[in-house]
Write a structure and sequence with these properties.
The structure is a homodimer of 148-residue chains. Chain A is mainly α and 148 residues long. Chain A has one domain: Arc Repressor Mutant, subunit A. Helix content of chain A is 68%, strand content 9%. Chain A is built from 6 helices and 3 strands. Chain A has a 3-stranded antiparallel β-sheet. In chain A, helix 2 crosses helix 5. Chain A is elongated. At the A-B interface, helix 1, helix 5 and helix 6 of A face helix 1, helix 5 and helix 6 of B. The structure holds a DNA duplex (30 and 30 nucleotides).
Chain lengths: 148, 148
DNA sequence: CAAAAGCTTGCATGCACATGTATCTTGTTG
DNA sequence: CAACAAGATACATGTGCATGCAAGCTTTTG
């Protein structure tokens, strides 16, 4: 049990996570700035739109959306509020459960997502590449991209 | 140039990043809650202490600390302020450059870090394991842990 | 060469904002 | 009716951006 490379509570998990944090901070910062500058949209808003566009009927329960974007329930309430104020989504009552609320993307929301999608993918790949140039992160990026 | 597997602007970068975000959100949330509950310390504070403890002379320039913890410069000003209020660190003027400020960890800071370190590593490994149990993330976790 | 002007750097502060926790309201279910 | 579930809201907090301020550096000028 001791030398099996299962790496269950391996101390190198810390090293892995440290590199991952650096990578995450770097990439997320770039994405945030690029989307805000070029598309006038926040990163959370973009991801929410993405989830909605890809969802069946372009709608999701608030709760499901929360899990998909990795935010808390209350944050999503306000996130959808922002999308509504921007005309990118609206709320719709769930017919069979009046407590439930659907967030639904609008046509304009779809357009904004389509417009931002290019920027997102370009900046993402570019950020991963520059991170991969850093010797400390090169291995991590390679691992992720190679899939093993 | 077209079929070379350099994966420069490969569209699968998006898939990679989506999994990474889910993993990141999951693990960071667990770490935040565990450290706050069991150790009464924030995640940023813990990471700053870690950087300081491991640094030469237990001190770092604000700027260097900012880069290490992946925060903006102004955020680190307040982060060190919090550490000071908690008695875990203090500021020291740089003798050769009076603009510069060193953040220096105190003995109590070292103790708090030592006390929290166990919780951190345990929760981290546990969170990675539970994430690895999710089929969607298993591959990512394995990739990171195997190093390739 | 010395002093002053102008630019740059390092950190602190004001402000806006997104997020989390706890709580409340409303609707559902036993 | 009691217990529970889904969202919305109140409040506190951490973060980033823009800005301010003081210290260093560079260039100009006498």
């Amino acid at each position: 049990m001791t030398t099996i490379p299962h790496a269950s509570d391996d101390s190198s998990d810390q090293a892995i996570w440290r590199r991952l944090l650096t990578l995450h901070a770097h990439v997320e910062r770039r994405l945030t700035q690029a989307l805000q500058r070029k598309c006038g949209i926040g990163l959370s808003e973009f991801r929410a739109l993405e989830c909605l566009v890809q969802a069946k009927d372009s709608e999701l329960r608030m709760q499901d959306l929360a899990e998909k974007v990795g935010l808390g329930q209350s944050s999503v309430t306000r996130l959808v509020g922002r999308l509504f104020s921007a005309g990118l989504a609206f709320r719709d009552l769930c017919p069979d459960d009046k407590r439930g609320v659907y967030a639904v993307v609008t046509d304009e929301g779809r357009q904004r997502y389509a417009a931002a999608r290019g920027t997102y993918s370009e900046v993402l790949s570019a950020a991963l590449n520059t991170a991969g140039a850093d010797p400390a992160l090169a291995g991590t990026v390679r691992s992720l991209r190679s899939g093993f």
